[in-house]
Amino acid sequence: MISVIVPVYNTEAYLRRCMESILNQTCRDLQVICVNDGSTDGSGRILEELGSRDDRVQVVFRQNSGLSASRNAGLELAQGEYVMFVDADDWLDEHACADAMEAMMRHDADVVFWSYCREYETASAPVLFWPEERVFEGESLEWLRNRLLGPSGSELGRPERLDSYGTAWGKLYRRSLFREGEASFVDTALIGSAEDVLCNLSLFGTARRAVYIPSTFYHYRKTAAGALTKRYKPELVAQWEELFRRMERHVREAGASAEAEQALRNRMALSVIFLGLNICDAPVSSVRKCRALHELLERDWCRAAVKELPVAPLPSHWKVFFLTVKLGFVPGLYLLLLTIKRILAK
Q: For the purposes of burial, counting CB atoms within 10 Å of the CB of 235, is it exposed (0-12), middle (13-18) or buried (19 or more)?
């Protein structure tokens, strides 16, 4: 049995499509755990209705405590040998579970993962990791785990895909991995974001074998291209510093290879984009924003990571951006960030 965990918070407009895509899977042996995280819209009513119609659906009502707590609560209730996460505004193709289970059985794997489609209001954009099936074990599995830490080589050319491999959705896990790897989801109030990446570092560090299948049967709803730039988060720098510290601990525990350390430094360097965009959203004057950007670039971890970031693999526009960062030219950096914000807002 597969336990499918669906955290739900105010997704009334999309929830029915998500749930129907799960309940209509060709693989019928499912436990569907819906964790209603204090929704204030009609999500709870939809879940109760679906639960009354299909005894595979188990609905849990909780006070709002965030995505990580909802996923952890679902894991506590999971009874299947395998577990999958689906966000409540996304959906699956009907053969997703069956195809993932077939690959899991055929390769005796611990994790199966796949590509996805970004779904905009009027278009779909497939994101294909690789065109062929791939099996990761031994050194290749270590390589994959390092990709969770950060990009390297040609992958640096697409910084917006920083965490494409590290999502909790788009994967089928052997549930025992969570116990063996002592893995759970950390509250984003502590680390800002990437809670699924941090969890996957533990899971992939415990797994013997992971399999990639070149299918895009997870549909990730992308309702706003500029979502990262829409709400200022005053604690984000401190939160991401805690995220980096936890990732560094994973690197040390795994043996601190040079490749892993470089991958994490690349993540830290690329974070200037997102932290800079967040600073630009602060409700303060341009002078104070530039001061905050200067303080960010002067942090020891940031200065060291940017210094070692290889710019050769970057496309021309990101070369300009990071050469500006390397030079510490804050007015130029501020103007570039404003340009990025205008592009994202289109």
A: exposed
Q: Which domain holds residue 27?
A: 2-129+164-221
Considering the domain architecture, whether residues 310 and 203 belong to the same structural domain is answered as no
Q: How far apart are CA 117 and CA 97, in angstroms?
A: 16
The pLDDT value given to residue 305: 97
pLDDT at 117 over 50: yes
Looking at the fold, whether 92 and 182 belong to one and the same domain comes out as yes
| pTM for the full predicted model | 0.93
Ramachandran angles phi, psi of 197, nearest 5°: -65, -45
| Shared-domain flag, residues 202 and 311 | no
How many Cβ atoms are within 10 Å of 75's Cβ, its own excluded? 21
Q: Please, what sign has the CA dihedral across residues 18, 69, 149, 336? A: positive
Quickly state the pLDDT bin for 166 (edges 50, 70, 90).
very high
| Better-predicted residue by pLDDT, 272 or 165 | 272
Cα–Cα dist 4/172, whole Å:
9
As given in the structure block, the two tokens for residue 2 are 């597969």
pLDDT number for residue 173: 98
Taking alpha carbons only, the member of 53, 17, 21, 48 closest to residue 34 is: 48
Same domain for 187 and 271, yes or no, is: no
On the question of pLDDT at 34 being above 80, the answer is yes
Asked if the model's pLDDT at residue 224 lies above 60, the reply is no
Number of domains in the chain: 2
Angle, to 10 degrees, between the axis of helix 258-280 and the axis of helix 316-327?
A: 90
Report the Cα 85 to chain-centroid distance in Å: 12
Q: DSSP label at 69?
A: H
Cα 61–chain centre separation: 24
Strands (E), the chain: 2-8, 30-37, 57-62, 82-85, 91-92, 111-119, 124-127, 134-136, 171-174, 210-221
Q: Would you tell me how many other CB atoms lie within 10 Å of the CB of residue 89? A: 20
Residue 20: its pLDDT value, please? 97
